[in-house]
Amino acid sequence: MQTIHEAAEAFRHAVNTATVGELSFPTSLDASRRVLKAVENPDLGMAALAKIVVAEPLLSAKVIRLANSVALNPANQTIRDVRQAVVRVGMDPIKALSMVLIMDQLRQAQRHSGCRELSNLLWERSVHVAALSYVLAKKLTRLDADEVMFAGIVHDLGRFYLLSRVADYPALLEDTVVLAETINDLANHATKMVLEKLNLPASVIEAVLASRHYSGSMPPATLGDVLFIAGVLSPRRDPFDELDARVIPMANSAVTLGLDQSMVAEVIAASGDEIYSIVIALES
User: Fold this and answer.
1) Which residue has the higher pLDDT, 80 or 269?
2) How many of the other CB atoms lie within 10 Å of CB of 224?
3) Which of 90, 98, 223, 95 is nearest to 155 (CA)?
4) DSSP label at residue 143
5) Could you give the CA distance from residue 190 to residue 199 in angstroms, rounded to a whole number?
6) Architecture label for domain 25-283
7) Residue pLDDT, tens place only, 58-67
8) Is the dihedral of CA 161, 167, 171, 176 positive or negative?
9) HEC secondary structure over 34-82
10) Rounded to an integer, what is the distance from CA 198 to the centroid of its chain?
């Protein structure tokens, strides 16, 4: 039987030597992956997109919820028809919602209680980071807010994937600190592979890999900077970083680098309802 450190090394080796083509996802994710692939088609029209959404009940519900959120429906004109909701929401946010379903299914597939708890905490944080990223991008930058929200949703997909695979190394589940350290060490490599496997845009992959660092630019100049600031401001802490004593808290790094917290605090305070409505639409 493996010791915890032997299991950690075996897990590291398996992940570090894997290729993009060797990555596999649970079969329960196939429907969501088909939707994501269809939405990636640049020639897909809104009518065809509506048919795809209607065929997936979970996605339909999320699209209607987002269409009626404060962020997308400031006039409070309620939509109940999926086709009208698709028109209001648009192509890129629906792509983001498809990815939300993939991540939610990965979260719910966890078999071990420790992994489930970490996955649930990571899920809550991802949703808050996505909502904050959208509002910050819209209020402070000229970046595409929909792309920024999408990047916020997928920025921790690598760690979700690693959690879904760690059950094959049961000894590693005996100590959450060693588990967190191991997954943190593998996160960048796994994230890059998973995002490439899903054929996500290079701009999103680059931003996600840069999101652990802050350039000091204010207002934020890059997608990666927006993700970093959203991570600092998120009311949901990073469960892995809290277990990993080697990690300097992002908030400390932000202060050192000169993040103008008063500026972003004003934006967040003025956009509370908008942020909350996006969180509810993504999370439910």
Assistant:
1) 80
2) 22
3) 223
4) S
5) 14
6) Orthogonal Bundle (1.10)
7) 888 888 998 9
8) positive
9) HHHHHHCCCCCCHHHHHHHHHCCHHHHHHHHHHHCCCCCCCCCCCCCCH
10) 14
What's the CA gap between 50 and 133, in Å, rounded? 26
pLDDT digits (tens, 9 = 90+) for 155-183: 999 998 898 888 889 899 889 999 999 99
Of the candidates 116, 133, 276, the residue with the CA atom closest to the CA atom of residue 284: 276
Task: Give CA–CA dist 85/218, Å, rounded.
Answer: 35
Q: How far is Cα 191 from Cα 159, in angstroms, rounded to an integer?
A: 7
Please state the φ and ψ torsions of residue 221, each to the nearest 5 degrees: -100, -20
Mean pLDDT across the chain: 85
Tell me the pTM.
Answer: 0.85
Q: What's the rounded Cα separation, in Å, for the pair 64 and 83?
A: 9
- What are the tens digits of pLDDT across the range 199-252? 888 999 999 999 988 887 778 889 999 999 899 888 889 999 999 988 876 655
In order of 71, 140, 198, the CA distances from 19 in angstroms are: 39, 38, 13
Query: In this structure, what are the phi and psi dihedrals at residue 222, rounded to the nearest 5 degrees?
Result: -125, 160
Q: Under 8 Å CB-to-CB from 192, ≥6 apart: which residues?
A: 158, 205, 209
